[in-house]
Amino acid sequence: xxxxxxxxxxxxxxxxxxxxxxxxxxxxxxxxxxxxxxxxxxxxxxxxxxxxxxxxxxxxxxxxxxxxxxxxxxxxxxxxxxxxxxxxxxxxxxxxxxxxxxxxxxxxxxxxxxxxxxxxxxxxxxxxxxxxxxxxxxxxxxxxxxxxxxxxxxxxxxxxxxxxxxxxxxxxxxxxxxxxxxxxxxxxxxxxxxxxxxxxxxxxxxxxxxxxxxxxxxxxxxxxxxxxxxxxxxxxxxxxxxxxxxxxxxxxxxxxxxxxxxxxxxxxxxxxxxxxxxxxxxxxxxxxxx
Length: 290
Hints:
This protein is an alpha/beta fold. It is 34% helix and 12% strand.
């Protein structure tokens, strides 16, 4: 005769998602985008706030520039060349990216992409060149040479940089899925650049890209970026054990890659990070006036 006791109901696995996002981006998207589009530096010595992107090869620096361009244009854009195959830096020259607002008018911030960092010696961008770029000593169009640091007297050396030439915000770009694989040598290179920026008082941020490749919940729905527990742990790990950048200065996003239409969920995360870059950069420029 069978037992009269009923079987216990199966236990559901814990949800990988938080009930509420730990950083709200969607509700503030329109306000954030309006701020970005209307931004003007308070410091009248500069027309454009300069943001320098750096990080390992393939992290998505050029793709982030294209993503910002896509958000501002409301359609997919691809001005900054990117390469997902070679494993080597596709960016070779120091180039300033401005964003067209209307005929003859650009938005009041610019990006500089730079050759990617590589773990080995004499590969990727020289940390010395990166440090010179912070101080505005790298001329537009300079071609990076991993074997030779730029020096005074070279064609690419700007001996008399203006405040406009200098970097106002430094942003480290790392792919979320590759974060745990950053070598000690790579972390050391990044920290050296961070230390140089700190000595100059330049504000610093980080963006973790390719979150859809790191997490299936985001691949299903980009709106889950700030609800996934795993990605929150990635941010905490990046803060505590990798580079020490404060958690409120670390942002998650997915760059435009295969998408051909504008996506508000992707845009919201991109604009949230961009708005904070402008805030930090403006605070830095304002401090220089006091």
